[in-house]
Amino acid sequence: MTKLTEHFTLEEFTRSTTANRLKIDNSVAANLMPNIQLTAIKLELVRKALGKPIIITSGYRCPALNAKVGGVATSAHTKGLAVDFKSSFGTPREICQRLIDANVQFDKLIQEHNQWVHIGFSSTNNRQIVLTAVKNAGKTIYKSGLV
Ligand SMILES: [Zn+2]
Question: Please, are residues 132 and 145 in contact by the beta-carbon 8 Å criterion?
């Protein structure tokens, strides 16, 4: 195990049942490690704001894995700057509301279908964008704010 911060390991960022199943090597290239490290540091602040552990359900995605899970090519997941997570703190909506109330820094926070939270970070400019993903006629659309 490679420890990144007090509560996060590199393996939590790279593990993927899809990658395992399809034998995709989802290891992080050396040039992206600073991004992973930054994300882990930011996630410590998320964890602190929630007062509960967070479970990363999807962290880093190499381009091949990202394509397989239907991620957009420019996804922050491919840069090591975003994770999807859950927490026993509460529902995805409650988690998002708490992070906003606690003034946690992020670039993009998305409440995804009431199933998980996506959070992305930037090393230079965290824009505090909040979105809610919902299905509309079978397609995912993003609404501004928490709805
Ligand atoms: Zn995501």
Answer: yes
Q: Give the pLDDT mean for 5-25.
A: 97
d(CA 93, CA 134): 12
The answer to whether position 1 is within a domain reads no
Distance from Cα 118 to the centre of ligand 1, integer Å:
4
What spacing in Å lies between the alpha carbon of 59 and ligand 1's midpoint?
Answer: 8
Residue 38 lies in a domain: yes
Distance CA 119, CA 93 (A): 13
CA 22 to centroid of ligand 1, rounded, Å: 20
What is the 93 CA–ligand 1 centroid distance (Å)?
A: 15
Question: What CATH number is associated with residue 75?
Answer: 3.30.1380.10
Give per-residue pLDDT as tens, 56-75: 999 999 999 999 998 888 99
